[in-house]
Amino acid sequence: MKILVIGVGNMGLTYAEGMSKSKLLKKKNIMVLDKSDEKLEELDQISYFDAYSELDECVPEADIIFIAVKPFHAEQLFEKIRPLVIPDQIVVSIMAGVTVDTIKNALSIDKIVRAMPNLPAKVGEGLTSYVTSEQVSKIELLTIENLLNTTGTSIRVSNENLIDASTGISGSGPAYVFYFMQSMMEAAQQMGFTRNESKVLVSQTFTGAVELFNQSDLSPNSWMKKVASKGGTTQAALDSMEDNNINELIKEAAFAAFNRAIELGKEH
Ligand SMILES: NC(=O)C1=CN([C@@H]2O[C@H](COP(=O)(O)OP(=O)(O)OC[C@H]3O[C@@H](n4cnc5c(N)ncnc54)[C@H](OP(=O)(O)O)[C@@H]3O)[C@@H](O)[C@H]2O)C=CC1
Ligand SMILES: O=C(O)[C@@H]1CCC=N1
C-alpha cells in the first residue's frame, strides 16, 4: 500500500510522520509532495519519505491520497490532480469545511474520506473525526481508521454536519485551551512569577486537572465543586467568570468556529 500526502505543513507532516512510525506501512511507502522547494529539501533529509514536487510522478502511484492543503488552495489543487487520479484511489481530505460532494465532483472519483484532526496529533494525542462516502468498503474503512489512529484516536461520525461541529470543538479546540493557558500565564507573571515558573504552574495545572477528569466519571462541574471551598478563593474566581458570562462566551466562540466551517464549505 502506498500513501501520498499532498501539503506537508503542520498537519500533513504530522500524518506522514505518524504513519511512517507505525508498523502499518513498509519504509518508503509514504510519498510526500509540497509546493515549497525549501520544504522538499528538508523532507529529502528524512529518510523514510519519498519527497516529490511533481504531481504526475506520485499521484498515479498512490493507493490513498491525503490532502492537507489549506481550503483556499483546494480548487487549484483539484484542477491539477483531476486528470491524474483513478477511480480505485481513496482521497482522505483533512481540509476544514470542504465537503465530500465538492471533492467527488471536483475529482470525479467516489471513494472519499473527510476527516477533521487536531494539532495534538503531532505528539500522538490527536483526535480525528471522520466520515466516508458510501463507496468506501468496510476493509478500506478499517485501513483508513488504522492510518488515522497513528496520530491518536479517531471517531467515525454519521454525517458531515458533525465534522463541521467537531471542527468547532476538537479541531480548533486546542487553540481555546492555549488561549486559556496564555491568560493564566499572563496573570501569573503579573503576580510576580517568571515566565518559566508561570509555564510550569500553568502546564502542570492543566495536565493534573485533565488527568483527574480522565480517571473518573465526574463532570467538570463536580470537579469544580471539589476545588471550591465555600467563601474561598476558587469561588471568588468562579463568581468572577459567571459575572462576566465566560461560559456563554466560550460556547459562542465554539459556535463561531462551527459556523465558519460551514461557511468554508460553501466557499470551496
Ligand atoms: N493546523 C491545524 O490545527 C489543523 C488544520 N486542519 C486542516 O489541515 C489543512 C492544512 O493545515 P495546516 O497544516 O495548518 O496548513 P499549512 O499551511 O501548515 O500546510 C499546508 C501546506 O500545503 C502546501 N500547499 C499549498 N498548496 C499546495 C499545492 N497545490 N500542492 C502542494 N502543496 C501545497 C503549503 O505550501 P505554502 O505554505 O507554500 O502555501 C503548506 O506547506 C487545512 O486545510 C486545515 O483546515 C485541520 C485540523 C487542524
Ligand atoms: O483554523 C482552521 O481553519 C483549521 C481547522 C481546525 C484547526 N485549524
Characterize the structure shown.
The protein is of the alpha/beta class and 268 residues long. The chain folds into 2 domains: 3-161, Rossmann fold, CATH 3.40.50; 173-264, ProC C-terminal domain-like (ProC C-terminal domain-like fold, Orthogonal Bundle), CATH 1.10.3730.10. The chain contains 12 helices and 8 strands. It has helices at residues 10-21, 37-45, 55-58, 74-81, 100-107, 138-148, 160-171, 173-190, 195-214, 220-227, 233-243, 246-267; strands spanning 3-6, 30-33, 49-52, 64-67, 90-93, 112-116, 126-132, 152-156. It has an 8-stranded mixed β-sheet, sandwiched between helices. Strand 7 (126-132), helix 6 and strand 8 form a beta-alpha-beta unit. Helix 7 packs across helix 12 (246-267) and helix 8 (173-190) crosses helix 9. It is elongated. The two termini are 30 Å apart. The model has no long low-confidence stretch (mean pLDDT 95). The structure holds NADPH dihydro-nicotinamide-adenine-dinucleotide phosphate and (2S)-3,4-dihydro-2H-pyrrole-2-carboxylic acid. (2S)-3,4-dihydro-2H-pyrrole-2-carboxylic acid binds at residues 96, 167, 171-172. It catalyses: L-proline + NADP(+) = (S)-1-pyrroline-5-carboxylate + NADPH + 2 H(+); L-proline + NAD(+) = (S)-1-pyrroline-5-carboxylate + NADH + 2 H(+). GO terms for molecular function: pyrroline-5-carboxylate reductase activity. NADP(+) binds at residues 6-11, 68-71. It holds the Pfam family F420_oxidored. Residues 2-97 form the Pyrroline-5-carboxylate reductase catalytic N-terminal domain.
